[in-house]
Design a protein that fits this description.
22 helices, single chain
């Protein structure tokens, strides 16, 4: 590698060691690269501007963030929780089963694992901690594991970002996440059932029949959002990016006018939080455009493709190598950084081997969700600890079985691509093949 490339790496590492926000570290490393290379640093503004303003799909990110925050502020989580109690609350470990089903429904609205843990997850943890049979560690582990459903079941913010860097169809990616998401939920419910039977957890008291109509009515309107979003996307009524605007408007109408649960003060707080979260993502995106410019100028993606070709790896061997890479990197790096920096470097090799971009994308996103729930820097662990005070060690002790289950599903999806690709192909999207 050139001296300029070593300078870029050095600045990024120094920024991380100094705990500088990763987006600023990436931007500064791009400036350092240009200075050592002797190029005009005005290229920073050019690359960032072109990258941001030519990416229509990026509009979906702040809109989905806004929709999720509106729903968390507007009693939607509580309504869905009560609705799911009717369906699975009588099973052993009923509240834990409710949390998983709530996550399945909420994931069809927000597309964010953090929003799932901070919204419905917090509601179910509070309910579980009222019962002596649920230890704090177990309650936290269930919520952390189920929150990973958010970006797998459509819509999904990470899949939108992956579509930006890969050129894959957002609609096909969303469809590709449906069956893996259903498998994830069923396997999680099986794990909870196994633990509940082993610990002889009692069944929850049934919800009185006379309360069913009101609970179902309260939960029916929030449940309409996944139907509106997915129905609109797959019927062609609007694009995935436009669906994000529909989601934001739909959630605002429900929270502010239908439920009357959103005051002006709460709305302003949602706007500020959504702006902050979107700004963080945008800065990371801006930094990634500079890093990708440097990597492309140095020919690193092509070198990696040539290296993979020289090793004569099969598709399965390459995907297993990618799984190991992302599971390790997921211990240390943010999802956005992995998607925006490392995925572009792997795409030429992916195309060279003829791996379907939709299959690869869903695998990558699942890898990153696993990274969110294992130490040392699992973001969902830290978010849940900050919200509830449950020690990370306790959650990991109770959650290892969920982690094993997710890795097992990841391997199944690696060896059997149809788990991901069957639904997109059946719906006629013709998930874009690499190559």
């Amino acid at each position: 590698m050139s001296l300029a490339m070593w300078s870029l790496i050095g600045v990024v590492v120094a920024g991380m060691l100094l705990r500088m926000p990763i987006g600023f570290s990436m931007l500064m490393s791009g400036v350092a690269y240009l200075l050592v290379k002797g190029q005009d640093i005005g290229l920073v503004a050019e690359q960032v501007s072109n990258g941001l303003y030519n990416s229509y799909v990026l509009l979906a990110v702040p809109l989905f963030v806004f929709a999720a925050n509106i729903m968390n502020a507007g009693t939607v989580s509580e309504r869905i929780f009560d609705f799911c109690r009717i369906l699975v609350g009588r099973m052993r470990g009923g509240l834990a089963q409710v949390d998983i089903l709530v996550s399945v429904i909420f994931s069809g609205m927000s597309g964010s694992a953090i929003a799932d843990a901070a919204g419905p997850g917090l509601v179910t943890i509070r309910q579980m901690l009222k019962k002596p049979e649920y230890t704090p560690g177990f309650a936290g582990a269930v919520v952390v594991a189920s929150a990973t459903l958010g970006p797998i079941i459509p819509p999904s913010i990470p899949m939108v970002i992956y579509a930006l860097v890969s050129g894959a169809s957002v609609g096909a990616l969303f469809l590709g996440g449906v069956i893996p998401g259903v498998f994830m939920a069923l396997l999680m419910m099986a794990v909870v059932h196994y633990i509940a039977v082993k610990r002889n957890m009692p069944r929850e008291a049934p919800v009185p029949l006379k309360e069913w109509p009101q609970i179902i009515f309260r939960g029916a309107l929030p449940l309409s959002m996944p139907i509106v979003l997915l129905g609109g996307i797959y019927s062609g009524a609007f694009t995935a990016t436009e669906a994000a605007a529909v989601a934001a408007f739909h959630s605002l109408i429900l929270a502010a006018w239908v439920f009357r649960a959103l005051s002006w003060r709460a709305f302003w707080a949602v706007v500020l939080e959504s702006t902050r979260a979107s700004a963080v993502i945008t800065i990371i995106l801006a930094g990634s455009f500079m890093l990708n410019y440097a990597f492309t100028a140095e020919g690193i993606p092509q070198l990696m493709a040539a290296w993979v070709d020289g090793m004569h790896l099969s598709r399965i061997q390459f995907l297993l190598l990618v799984n190991v890479l992302f599971l390790v990197l997921g211990c240390f790096l943010d999802v956005s950084v992995l998607l925006l920096v490392f995925v572009p470097m792997l795409l030429p090799a992916t195309k060279l081997l003829g791996i379907d971009l939709v299959h690869f994308g869903v695998l990558v996103v699942l890898n990153m969700m696993i990274g969110l729930i294992h130490p040392p820097f699992g973001m969902l662990l830290f978010v849940t600890k900050a919200l509830t005070g449950i020690p990370i060690g306790d959650m990991m002790k109770e959650g290892w079985l969920f982690l094993v289950m997710l890795v097992g599903l990841l391997l199944a999806m690696t060896f059997f691509p149809e788990i991901v690709l069957w639904l997109p192909r059946t719906m006629g999207y013709g998930a874009p093949a690499a190559g």
